[in-house]
What we know:
This protein is of the alpha+beta class. The chain has a domain at 40-118: Carboxypeptidase-like, regulatory domain (Immunoglobulin-like, Sandwich). The chain has one helix and ten strands; from the N terminus they run H-E-E-E-E-E-E-E-E-E-E. Strands 1, 4, 7 and 8 form a four-stranded mixed β-sheet that branches. Strands 3-2-5-6 form a four-stranded antiparallel β-sheet, with no helix packed on it. Strands 9-10 form a two-stranded antiparallel sheet. The protein is rod-shaped and about 90 Å long. The N and C termini lie far apart (95 Å). 16% of the residues are buried.
Amino acid sequence: MLKFNSSRTGARFMVLALVALSALFLSSVAFAQSTVSNGSIAGTVTDATGAVVPSAKVTMTGPTGQTFHAVTSNSGAYSTGALIPGTYKVRVEAKGFKTEQLSLDVKVDNTANGSVKLEIGQESTVIEVQAQRCSGQHRTGHGARRFDVESD
Length: 152
């Protein structure tokens, strides 16, 4: 005749239940870590009449200084992959159009609207100058002149 020890069976059941609950808890933690923590930018580049601009170069500079590049499709559309949240500087260039720049905030689980209307004109180069206070002297035939230069 078989004899069951109820305390042993109860202990095995408790161990099995703890293992199952631990597995369930750990899988929920792993799922929480894999949820979306990025955003993206997508838009369409058009001209002043609303016609799409294919093959426009789109350059995005992120909050860490990292640069991303895209080229608009035949329908004038572009999009990025996953981007970390933050403020991005977006620069759009196309032959025969003025260069356009905008600033976009990328948020978690959101696609920022990067649509741009380009004006007809020549491509331009943007030069960003940063300066601090400096001073010097300029000598002419009539003596020396002192000057100070300040920037904001």
